[in-house]
């Protein structure tokens, strides 16, 4: 009975798209024969997600080689680094999004896009089950499944509340474009409420108390944006309550921006103190109600509560339920985050790749590889390591694992170089190999996973598309010119992350930047660097023009305070 409706979503190819209705008997199976039998069937690549990772995969993929099908609940790509600017109207939401169809129409070959959410991955049968979230009755409950030859998971992560009571119900988040728009409305509502007649001064103060939980780059940038918004725009529009506004930034660690160089952390803390932003470090939020936020001081163990008008929760990310379920299926149920190898292949699952925030490269393997590098270097024989051998081994390790170098540079260089010093601090020519391995295992246990950033996600997408583009070439010529150092005989070099530095806008036309080569820059000139980098990184000329004109509009007319 549903056949005529279901045809809307059926593609005619083997391993095709099948629409579901409420009962399994309504499934329309794809025909078993290709329409065009003269051409061999192209392998189907299903891509889940159109964020940083998914989009950069699609941008570089030679789609003429594959049957490419993309599934995402959002039909646009959002430039997330500018989301904090959307919360205060510095930049409009429309200016930072690019429709997916604009992106894919420019690609070589055809790419199909389905606006739907993947609700289940079925690794055994190599298919994904999706549900359209468009509110219509075209296809029963809107579910369909897609079979794949290769699956690229790029579904990102979701907000992490750490199961803190009341957070989901009473906090705003800053993850999606819609979240930023809600905050924009929420901030203006707090001001409009605070000036209503009949309120006590205490009630007005409470309405104008903005609390941000999380002192990472997003929380800090939002605090800075909010502060600028008050100082430059709202102070003139709501003069009667201008002295009652307060911003509190809560951070569980000892410093804000603690993933940056400590000069940047302390510059940011000093600037916020001068600006009157209350920075509470060493505090863990234990619950949030509609009126109060309760936290525990780590040093004293004491719990206290403060009233709030609006809370923004920005404390890192967690795994999406669909990925969790998939991890259970493939024996990764005990892990916190989906693991891949260095070629971004999901461990324990054929033909599935995971890129961006939804996965991480498994670190345990790194230590095994480091041991094999030692063996290959053949330095164990004497039981000691000369400085030259040390350098060679380290070079080898760092080529494969740039994050080890990052870690050594940032924090624990001493752990390894100290091994070369005697008790008086003088360098000695060689070191005990066991001691060296011990120090490296410490490095391994401390080496952080790659950060969950757009930079990592975009580089992984580009890397993977290049592997896909070269797949046929490598199949025809398996000995290939680029075998990786004889170990593993893999056709492709493993993924290597290149860190191009990171920014932290701090408000008042000032920013801080940590650039490659341990170069730190802070102040007004860095803000101009920030403007130029973010303008150049836009995905299209359309968004570039929109963003730059929003910045110009803000300089000339100020921000819009309607909250729309
Ligand atoms: P996302 O970009 O989150 O994309 C996930 C995609 O998957 C989306 O299209 C989503 O709709 C889709 N999806 C979700 N669920 C499903 C499903 N079930 N089925 C199919 N599709 C699904 N990083 C930086 O490097 N620099 C910055 O300045 C920076 N600033 C940031 C500011 C903010 C406010 C935020 C929130 C993040 C910021 N980041 C920044 C981090 C960066 O945005 C993320 O690391 C990056 O978006 C990760 O890319 P991704 O493709 O893995 O995930």
Write up what this structure looks like.
The protein is α/β, with parallel strands linked by helices and 564 residues long. The chain folds into three domains: 1-31 and 40-73 and 116-157 and 319-363 and 450-474, FAD/NAD(P)-binding domain; 167-318 and 500-557, FAD/NAD(P)-binding domain (3-Layer(bba) Sandwich), CATH 3.50.50.100; 364-448. 37% of the residues lie in helices and 21% in strands. The protein contains 18 helices and 28 strands. The strands form nine sheets. A five-stranded parallel sheet has the order 6-3-2-10-22. The chain has a five-stranded parallel sheet with strand order 12-19-13-14-15. It starts with a helix and ends in a 7-residue tail after the last helix. 36% of the residues are buried. The model is unreliable at 1-36, 410-415 and 483-489 (pLDDT under 50). The structure holds flavin-adenine dinucleotide (FAD). Residues 48-54, 71-74, 80-81, 83-84, 117-118, 154-156, 174-175, 218, 320, 322, 356-358, 452-455, 457 line the site of flavin-adenine dinucleotide.
């Amino acid at each position: 009975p549903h056949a005529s409706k279901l045809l809307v979503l059926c593609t005619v190819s083997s391993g095709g798209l099948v629409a579901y209705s409420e009962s399994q008997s309504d499934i329309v199976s794809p025909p078993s024969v290709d329409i065009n039998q003269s051409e061999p069937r192209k392998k189907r690549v299903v891509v889940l997600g159109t964020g940083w990772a998914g989009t950069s995969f699609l941008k570089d993929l030679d789609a003429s080689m594959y049957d490419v099908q993309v599934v995402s609940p959002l039909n646009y790509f959002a430039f997330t680094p500018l989301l904090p600017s959307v919360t205060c109207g510095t930049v409009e939401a429309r200016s930072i999004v690019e429709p997916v169809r604009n992106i894919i129409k420019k690609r070589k070959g055809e790419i199909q896009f389905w606006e739907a959410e993947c609700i289940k991955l079925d690794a055994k049968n190599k298919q994904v089950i999706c549900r359209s979230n468009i509110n219509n009755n075209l296809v029963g409950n809107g579910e369909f499944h897609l079979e794949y030859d290769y699956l690229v998971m790029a579904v990102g992560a979701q907000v992490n509340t750490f199961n803190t009571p009341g957070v989901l119900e009473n906090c705003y988040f800053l993850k999606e474009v819609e979240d930023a728009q809600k905050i924009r409305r929420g901030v203006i509502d707090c001001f409009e409420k605070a000036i209503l007649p009949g309120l006590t001064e205490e009630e007005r103060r409470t309405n104008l108390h903005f609390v941000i939980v999380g002192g990472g780059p997003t929380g800090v940038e939002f605090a800075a944006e909010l502060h600028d918004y008050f100082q430059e725009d709202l102070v003139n529009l709501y003069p009667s309550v201008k002295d009652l506004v307060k911003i509190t930034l809560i951070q569980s660690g000892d410093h804000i921006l603690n993933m940056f160089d400590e000069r940047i952390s302390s510059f940011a803390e000093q600037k916020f103190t001068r600006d009157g932003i209350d920075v509470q470090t060493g505090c863990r939020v234990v619950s949030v109600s509609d009126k109060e936020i309760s936290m525990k001081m780590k040093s004293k163990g004491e719990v206290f509560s403060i009233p709030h008008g609006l809370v923004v929760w920005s404390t890192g990310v967690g795994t999406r339920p669909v990925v969790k379920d998939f991890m259970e299926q493939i024996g990764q149920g005990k892990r916190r985050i989906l693991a891949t190898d260095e070629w971004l292949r999901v461990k324990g699952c054929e033909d599935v790749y995971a890129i961006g925030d939804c996965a991480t490269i498994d670190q345990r393997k790194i230590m095994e590889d480091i041991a094999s590098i030692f063996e290959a270097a053949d330095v164990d024989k004497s039981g000691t390591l000369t400085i030259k051998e040390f350098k060679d081994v380290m070079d080898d390790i760092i080529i494969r694992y740039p994050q080890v170098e990052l870690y050594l540079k940032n924090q624990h260089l001493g752990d390894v170089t100290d091994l070369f010093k005697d008790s008086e601090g003088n360098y000695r020519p060689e070191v005990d190999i066991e001691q060296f391995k011990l120090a490296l295992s410490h490095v391994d246990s401390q080496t952080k996973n790659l950060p969950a950033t757009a930079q990592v996600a975009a580089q992984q997408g580009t890397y993977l598309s290049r592997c896909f583009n070269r797949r046929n070439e490598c199949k025809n010529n398996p000995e290939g010119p680029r075998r990786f150092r004889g170990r593993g005989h893999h056709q492709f070099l493993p993924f290597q992350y290149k860190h191009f530095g990171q920014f932290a806008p701090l408000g008042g036309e000032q920013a801080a930047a940590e650039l490659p080569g341990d170069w730190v820059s802070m102040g007004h000139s860095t803000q101009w660097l920030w403007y130029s980098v973010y303008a150049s990184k836009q995905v299209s000329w359309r968004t570039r023009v929109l963003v730059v004109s929003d910045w110009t509009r803000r300089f000339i007319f100020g921000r819009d305070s309607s909250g729309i």
